[in-house]
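Our collaborator T.R. sent over the components below with a one-line note: 'Predict the complex.' Nothing else. No constraints on interfaces, no templates requested, no preferences about which chain binds where. So this is a plain run: every listed entity goes in together, and whatever single assembly comes back becomes the starting point for the next discussion.
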Amino acid sequence: MTTEPASAALPRKRPVRRAWNRFKQFFATPHQWMGALFLLVFGYLILVPVSQIVFSTLRIQEGDTRRAGGEIGEWTLYYWQRTLVGDLAQRIFYEPLVNTLIVSAGYTLLAMTIGVVLAWLLVKTNLPFKRFIGIAALIPYIVPSWTIALAWLTMFGNDRIGVGAPGVLQATLGITPPDWLAYGAVPIIVVLAINYFAFTFLLTASALATIDGRLEESAAMHGASGRLILRRITLPLILPALGSAFILTFAQGIGTFGAPAFLGIPARFYVLSTQLYQSAGLGRFADAFALTLVLIVMAALAIYMNSLLLGRRKQFTTMTGKGSTHRSIDLGRWRWPVGAAVLAFVGVAAFVPIGLLVWQSLQMNLGNFTVQNLTFAYWVGRVDGVDGILVDSRVQRAAWNSLRIGLAVATLTALIGVMTGYVVSKARGTWLARVVEQMSFLPYVIPGIAFGAIYLTMFARPVGPLPALYGTIWIIILAAVVNRLPFASRTGISAMMQVGRSLEEAGEVHGANLFTRLRRILLPLTRRGFLAGFILSFVSTVKDLSLVVLLVTPQTMVLTVLTFGYVELGRRQFADAIGVVIVVIVLGCTWLAQWLTKTNPLSGFGGSQT
Amino acid sequence: MSRVVLEGVTKRFGDEVAVDRLSLEIEDGDFFSLLGPSGCGKTTTMRLIAGLERPDEGRIWIGDQLVCDAADGTFVPAPNRRLGMVFQNYALWPHMTVEDNIRFGLHVRKVPESEQRQRLTDVIKQLQIEGLEKRYPNELSGGQQQRIALARELVTQAGVLMMDEPLSNLDAKLRIDMRLELKRLHADTGRTIIYVTHDQLEALTLSRRMAVMSKGLVQQVGSPDEVFMRPANVFVASFMGQSTINTFPATLDAGAVRGEGFEMPIVAAASGDGRREGAGSRQVVVAARPEELTLHRTASVGALHCEVVSELPMGYTSLVQVRPLDIGEERFVTLEHPRSDAVFEPGTEVWVGIEAARVHVFDAATNQRVVVANAG
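Returned assembly:
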């Protein structure tokens, strides 16, 4: 022995060496430097942009020097005054705000009602066709909401507003749907409810499935009737889950853009997200940012309420017991009628929108629903000097952009997911794990369109080490990666947490360095989860409209924004055809992810906004 | 040389002190057990030696290498410590076959292929796990998994082998077989083994030396016999026994230990450190395991007068619960007695013999052992 411990002197103070050793240690401990890197990068990509937009609503912007009465960059309350109390406040803020609240409350309540009834029927009763209903109910949630909005117009559109083409009802039955049914609050509420009910359905179903069946049985032993058990036992037990579902559904749709754009803008019905788009389109970024901040605050409040609720939920620990013995409630003579009704509803919600899009994409003349009018011209032919979508080079370029952006985002988010998962699982219980986890959740409260607006201005010119990204696909990739971060890190954390800590430590003891441990132990064990995460990231990037609508340029055009453009031009058949292509990609990839994990990849806190 | 030395090692998790100024010397070739109830810091101690945790204070040597010094931040990470470790849940990699699991460490350390094969064959023979090479861990029984986990550590030929409750997931019979096997392996390989367990019987049967821990502190270090026969304090005395220990408050003076209702003559007393006691009486605690007390049907000098409350037959012996008569408070004493004697009906009058040669005396204030010599 070089040093005899028994006779070793008390440790002397060696501050320099100690600091150097600490420094070396920090970088020899992978989860620490990874955590630090993570905080640095995402601090820069999340906190800096948000604080920048706060500042830009408080400083005079270019072009506003005369109106705001000051020099560029001077502090001002001009924009907030304009938004909150000015002459235009009613039109650019209060009206969209009230509309947003009406629409959000409306679709959330409707989606909750459908989702809860469906969950109860599927989990607790002997409803027929359960398997099919369970799968079909997820389809409207997987397809982008704007495709449902387009299908709505195909069904209920009238020739007075918008593109002026009649929908199915008007064309075949001669009934002219009133304007309130074709455009505005009602259709947006219904479309978003159809889009989101599967989310509340999944949350409620898993809550119902984890109730210990004995709790209900002992109530029955005390002589309680089925109805009483439902009211006094089952509902109170899942109430916190319902509250959580309500808030999360509300938060998810608050900044959604596609459906309100298609169903609202033609009738001058604006919500915050479409108003934000309008302001940004006019170059009034400070106004847009004020709305962005309002959206962020609303979403953050909702998430905060949810965390309060989930905190309280701990007192309901009984419900996390094993989902044991389930006694199916016999629907009796109602079994088949109810089954048929549910089947019809779910079938309509899942398949009719897609069918309508296909049908309309095959119409030579818009709004003519006869067989003689069918054509493949919009798919493979040429109409008015525009090629069909399968042979159009612009569509092909957009498809290529969608594809490579989707792949890049999926790859990066998968890597970041691995990294966050590793850091959080390795450092669990420490402040580092908590900060990384919370930071990765932050983008959840920033609606897609708000993200677009923020990144548009932040990366229009060179910032720090990054060159000007606007006009390249990198700005879209960057925004999408940060936007997907909550989902990616959640996938990563749960996958890594499932791998017992000792499996990695056994590798460590055997002399394997970080790279070897990742390659030989951690990645092989979490492969399926990450592959599913990769595919879902790809899917949500390909179907996304809210995030990219402000960020694309003609060179970086993607499929969804191209669709949006066709709708604005009134070329519905082209839009519908591209919509069908996106739906096919999205459904196919989701099925693949589900097959890979053998679980439901949509469970958790939901997909993304579209 | 595979000696392991810890010096003043402290590990905190937040405000909680998991290991408190721990110093240990584990000799080369030792079979050393860390024994204690759950949460006593024994697993943390092992993880500190392995390099999976970093101490807040203190130093650790493995062989002649200083692997850890909290004072200047020296820290050799786990991959470079070249130790073996069997985890409580075995930590077999579920995506690798048995062979890949065993060869992982050799592969990582770039042992030549031919030697890998040779060592694999040897260890498979040594642990009698032939024919399992191509299976996956989930296709093995618990006992087989245990052997694979052991094989995976033996094959690397690390000088120090650590085991964290390795037998706790096995059923009772298999556990006894594996104990014999471990003892044989230790004799065959001559490795230093550090063994973490909460099962005193495992520690007693396997170890050459052991440390009893509680609340992050080492309570006693010694051979199994020393620890069992001469527990250093009340905690060790009560932890090292099959059932709850009986304690009696008493007074020690020159001639005897006197408690309420009993008396135990002695000739001399010294503190645990061998220091001779001066004159004057002091407060002590007499601790006796059920098998260290004797039961009599007739009165004898100094014995505790009791009546039988209940009897729990346990095969050859039975556990008899009695209640002392003639004392102020209501309390119970448990003792073990051969079954060959007649049955004790509740209410039977009996006398409990407490003899200095069999029981343990601890200072009431310091909790430390007082060495007493029996007069009888």
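Summary for T.R.: Chain A touches chain B at residues 1-3, 5-6, 8, 11-12, 14, 17-22, 24-25, 28-29, 429, 500, 502-503, 505-513, 516, 520-521, 524-525 (CB under 8 Å).
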